[in-house]
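One-letter codes give the sequence; each number marks local geometry. A record appears below:


***
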Amino acid sequence: MAKQYKMFIDGKWVSSTSGETFSVLNPATEQAIARVAKGAKEDAKNAIDAARKAADNGVWAGKTPAERALALYKLAELVEKNASFFARLESINVGKTIKYSTDSDLPFIIDNLRFFAGAARMLEGKASAEYSGMGTSIIRREPVGVVASIVPWNYPLYIAVWKIAPALAAGNAMVIKPASYTPLTLLEFTKLVEQAGIPRGVFNVVTGAGEVIGKELASSKKVDMGSLTGNTETGKKIMAQASVNVKKVHLELGGKAPLIVLPDADVETVAQGAVIGGYWNTGQDCTAVTRVIIPERVYQRVTKRMVEKAKKFRLGNPLDKKTDMGPLVSEKQRERVQGFIEKGVEEGARVVAGGKRPKHLQKGFFLEPTILKDAAQDMTVCREEIFGPVIAVYSYDKIDDAIEQANDVDYGLAASVYGKDITACLRVANKLNFGTVWVNEHGILASEMPHGGFKQSGFGKDLSLYSMEEYTRVKHVYVDLTGKAIRPWHYTVFRGKQTID
């Protein structure tokens, strides 16, 4: 029997006010593994009210940074004790391999919680000299208030923690909505939030349709900030809905990451980096390699080696440690990705690896790792986000052409450059219009380093101390030091110098 899950609002586990639920599937088996409360507009309002009350009462913001840090450290410890449980559930719900969720997602989640526990005690204000000559200026960093976060289905807990950890470290109350495909690990995580001692009303989880819950969170005047990781079209809607009270918005949106190969690059290193960067998490990553731009003279060699590697990927049960790649998250997503492949062929590209459903897997939303050769900059597969295991490869003559092609998309999230001449790599990196540029690598993140994009990939930063700036507001407090009723500048408004009635 499928497990039943409720929502968490104002410190209580509650059913939807409508009484409705929805099924959650295992994408590898297509079987239902849970039923989850389908939140309605009223549920979102209740969660917002609970967070608003908690924020206004200061039950969390009023705690010392040390107290907030201790709660986050405890939360990290609880997740670490249950890491194998979360890794397995994430694999079952998302379809990512158990080795990926165990050795990549969970360690980073735990590290991120610990990083922001420390960051809670590092919020900086400035006490300065008397700039005006008459008083002291003080800069305070304060919590924004109520944060509404919407997280995607490709990294349900991983990206949720990117939002939860800095928001709570800064002293905010929050409402968070997981994706309907993949709500399970966040709901289980919420049980640990309770145990960690986060006060009632500070942390709330509402499940349900984005067009209902997401819209209410974005448009509510009781919410001070909206944070979304998702596709660009959704980001545009959130921005429009958030304008009702001009709330602060943080968006990490789509990507179309290029990998530029320099003429002296090692072919093996490039091929390995491209397939790892393109196929991790089944290509369902906004920083995934989607375009490999190769010098004409090594184009055939690089492509051939990439194809050889792509054909060796082992697809199958995500819980098998030997599996390299699991299914896409849903049949809808598989069909979408398949449609991009077909469009690429129509526009003149050739499928030289993958492109089909694996013959040995009759159940599950699987798709072979795919390479499209002879692609061109104006093709749909080179311009739009696919979000699946598809890499387009094409050539260039001059490095300036490669840079122009890399930048000539709507997105600006991540890119990489491969070559032996580091000076040349850095010259290219400096000209790429992307928030992250890796050199001879693709995909490494660290809690200490910011992650976020340019152009239609959004704005604002996840990770690092820079993300603490997203979840705080800056206040200037001025303290007069003259002690006099009449100040030297008052005459510019009223009467003459040093005159008092």
